[in-house]
Design the sequence.
């Protein structure tokens, strides 16, 4: 089952998706939660996402975070990324899966929105308006600290977010979104190869935590001090 979150309001779309995930995990604590970033999307990972949880876990809660690359995104060989095709090829299988599959794709072009909507059980759209209320959950100070490459500020903002009750997965997801944003838009403080390494480092933090490494909150603190 696909639950699709999209819209021009990036902050609100991401916040609402993570709020939905938090409520689902509270309602069904036995759900095993997995977040797949764009760089992790392969035939194998998407096949796993569509299958049942296994012997001790009946269902999975899977977040597929921003699976569509920017139209100008290229790999280090100068070739266009092709994860978009991989994801779309698995839409039918994900749609009929017993797992709860959250597809988070803000600012998606209309043609792609239509394609995912056709397969989704529920669609949630959050577009920007001329005037809108402040959205709690999108941590501007956190992403600004990463953009500014300030270890001290980033460490402080991560701890403030944890103290305020934000889930470590939500913090990591926001940081990884910003890392990809830096990759696509560029920054005078981050070289192109550094932004790619930053994105991969955040993926490795999550993978290591899943395999029994440092707790994710502690791993995020260590990450901040290495920026």
Sequence:
């Amino acid at each position: 089952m696909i639950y699709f979150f999209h819209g021009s309001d990036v902050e609100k779309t991401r916040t609402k998706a993570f709020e939905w995930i938090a409520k689902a995990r509270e309602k069904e604590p036995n759900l095993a939660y997995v977040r797949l970033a764009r760089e992790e999307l392969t035939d194998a990972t998407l096949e796993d996402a569509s299958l049942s949880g296994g012997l001790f876990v009946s269902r999975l809660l899977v977040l597929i975070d921003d699976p569509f690359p920017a139209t100008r995104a290229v790999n280090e060989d100068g070739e266009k990324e092709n994860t978009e095709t991989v994801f779309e090829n698995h839409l039918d299988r994900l749609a009929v899966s017993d797992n709860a599959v959250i597809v988070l794709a803000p600012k998606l072009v209309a043609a792609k929105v239509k394609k995912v909507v056709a397969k989704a059980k529920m669609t949630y759209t959050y577009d920007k308006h001329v005037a809108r209320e402040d959205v709690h959950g999108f941590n501007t100070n956190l992403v600004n600290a990463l953009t500014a490459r300030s270890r001290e500020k980033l460490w402080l903002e991560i701890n403030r977010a944890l103290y305020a009750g934000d889930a470590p997965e939500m913090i990591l997801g926001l940081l990884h979104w910003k890392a990809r944003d830096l990759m696509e838009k560029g920054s005078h403080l981050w070289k192109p190869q550094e932004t790619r390494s930053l994105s991969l480092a955040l993926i490795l933090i999550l993978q290591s935590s899943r395999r029994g490494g440092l707790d994710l909150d502690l791993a995020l603190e260590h990450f901040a001090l290495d920026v």
